[in-house]
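Thread: Newbie trying to understand structure tokens

Hi all, I'm a second-year student working on a class project, and my supervisor (Dr. K.) asked me to get a predicted structure for one chain before our next meeting. I've only ever worked with sequences, so writing a 3D structure as a token string is new to me. If someone could post the tokens and maybe explain what I'm looking at, I'd be very grateful. Here's the chain:
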Amino acid sequence: MNWNALFAVVIATASSTHAAIVANWSQDELSGPIIDSTSNHLPGTETGFATYGMAGVPNGTYGGITVNSAFGTSIEYGPINQDEFFTVGFDNNNPVLNLDATGKFTVMGWMNPYPLLDATPRSYKILSTGSAAGVDRGWGLALRLTQMDGTGSSVRFTGFGIADNDSMQFALTLNTWIHVAVTYDNGLITYFLNGAMLDTDTRAFGNEGANARLVIGSRLGGNDSDQMNGLLDGIRVYDEVLTEGQIQQAATDSVSLIPEPSTAALGLAALFCLGTRSRRR
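---
Reply by user tm_fold:
Sure, no problem. This is what the structure looks like when written as tokens:
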């Protein structure tokens, strides 16, 4: 058997799911800036007083997503009416801010939403681009809450200065981990909850201006209605449209102790080494 060829195929296959990843914020930090493990972005600088070292996503089944090797912690944003977020970098020159309105990408994250503080609807922002009042366009991913009991909730993808786009509504169990994702394909928005597609919208966002910034947990220049209120974990961005199965796998990987390449690839790599040793005897 040609072990070299097999090993090459395995590594290529194992890494293909993640080949398009351009950002990964694990939320595992215990203090200081948050780090993009892909090294594509500068550290995220904190505003306010987020709480580090909170419990992360535990093992379990979340719709179409199964987590078996849970690892790491999460960061708490809120619940007080105080800005608590991270600004990534000092300008708009980074991969996420440069995703084009005519292009393709996938954005996702785990969140454990706390109840609304009052009857005022809010958008719990996971990640957003742009600047104050949408002047610099951009986009954002959020969970939209309208009722204090979690009913009437939706996944929201906002094109700042253009429109708020919401998925079909669903009943949400508060204080519970969920995974939300959106794929974007030249204006086609597809919403996912716990690895399952909800529905679609068609609306393009505006490309970023010079003052746009990348923010985790809020929107730059936003008010309390844009603040995350709860826990965030495993935030990722890909520069292509992932399938439903790829979203489920990426969601699992983002909160699991699974090195890349996958354990399957490492196992076959070990076989490759054994095969090489056998040939040399």
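A couple of things are worth pointing out once you decode it. The chain has three helices and 17 strands. Residues 20-259 form a domain with the Jelly Rolls fold (CATH 2.60.120.200). Feel free to ask follow-ups in this thread.
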